[in-house]
Hints:
This protein is of the alpha+beta class.
Amino acid sequence: MFKGFYDLSSAMLTQTRNLDVVGNNMSNTATTGYKADRYADTTFDEVMRSRIGNKEKQPQELGTTTSYITALDEVYTDHSQGALQSTGLPLDFGLEGDGYFAIQAEGGRLYTRNGSFMLDDQGYLSLAGQGRVLGRNGQAIYLGTDKITASTDGTIYTEDGQMLGQLGLFTFADPAQDLQKADEGMFTAAGQPQLSDNTVVHHEMIERANTDLVQQMTELITCQRALQSASQLSKMYDQLMSKTATEIGRV
């Protein structure tokens, strides 16, 4: 009887936390370069046992629990490619492949797929609210103008062909493990980044969030129904135990 309460509490806790993850994904569908999160727990036998985005796809234990009530084990970030969208804006850059831009922020270096850049007040290529964009040489890229063109390897030129710099594009052996979310669409590096030579840069384009809104809506409805069912069953258990205690007391 008591284990039933544990199971229902586990289900309610699981679905509540899953709703938080789904809600955050849905609220960031318009965030450029956003990578959706995925929820994993040990409540169900079919839970995923490998990290999304892990190139090696090696099985990895998700963890253990010390009580009947199972809580959140981990939230995984899906680093798959988002759709590219043309903007026509000269300081926009979309990435195709596994590379990340590097941003020099106040607290250290950040990595992102958000290529919706601007010029700061000193003429450096920057990401609003974060910091300056770093080049392949690890230095901030000075443009001084938005009258530019760019090649697919991230080299930026003036309209008359003068080279201004080259975007630094970095890859990680296992993005799901080597990158940790610092902000929406921003990551800090837990692993060692490597320069990417196979990431294609699309000028005047951005990468949209890789969130599937229809899938998230479906998951949202499923979680809400599961939470409601667990809540109703919990009330039934409470009534049953109250009645049992009352009947035993009479005997």
